[in-house]
Each structure stands twice: as C-alpha cells, then as structure tokens.
Amino acid sequence: YPLNKVHKAHYVLMNIECELATLRELESAFRFNDAVLRSLVISRKHAVTSPSPLVKESEEKSAAPAPAAPEGGEPEATESASPDQA
Fold first, then answer.
1. What residues contact 41, with CB distance under 8 A and at least 6 apart?
2. First to last CA, the chain
3. How many angstroms separate the CA atoms of 33 and 20, rounded?
4. Would you say 44 and 38 are in contact if contact means Cβ atoms under 8 Å apart?
5. pLDDT digits 0-9 by tens, 31-72
6. How large is the C-alpha radius of gyration of the chain?
7. Most buried of 6, 27, 49, 67 (most Cβ within 10 A)?
8. For residues 41 and 23, is the Cβ–Cβ distance under 8 A?
C-alpha cells in the first residue's frame, strides 16, 4: 500500500544488541530522517538467531536441482579463455 503516495519502498531489518542510549540515538535518527517513512523498534529478551522464512525459502530454491535440458537439444557450450589460450 502507498505511503505518502510512494508505491515502492525498501525494508530494512536490523537485529542488534546495544545499550539504551544507543537505541535512543537510532530512534532519533530514524525519526528526523526524511527518507525513513516508518520505523518500529521491538525489544526481545533473547536474540532471534534463526534464519528468516525468506532466507530459508531462497536456500531451498538454490538447493533444488536445475531443470533438465529439452529433449533432442544439445547442451549449450560455454567458452572460457584460460591464460594459456591467448
């Protein structure tokens, strides 16, 4: 949904451990930065160290086997020049 009539945005997740004074300084920097439209600080008793669902999903996709070449088709040749073949 649009924020200030802007349809594209970047989301940043920072998982940090810091002193209260540092946290207040970060909150102040976010509040007075015109590029930051919204911010949210959540305090946790224990650090969350498990991978996010998005990271897990991308790892599963990268671990999946590559699609097979079409039948009757020849695999594409790749050329690489080595220093000996100049």
1. 23, 26, 27
2. 55
3. 20
4. no
5. 999 888 888 888 888 888 888 888 888 888 888 776 666 665
6. 23
7. 27
8. yes
Q: What is the pLDDT of residue 86?
A: 43
pLDDT tens digit sequence for 16-29: 888 999 999 999 99
Alpha-carbon 77 to chain mean position: 33
Q: Tokens 């909150």 — which residue?
A: 27
Residue type, 30: F
Tokens for 80? 């690489």
Q: Position 3: which residue type?
A: L
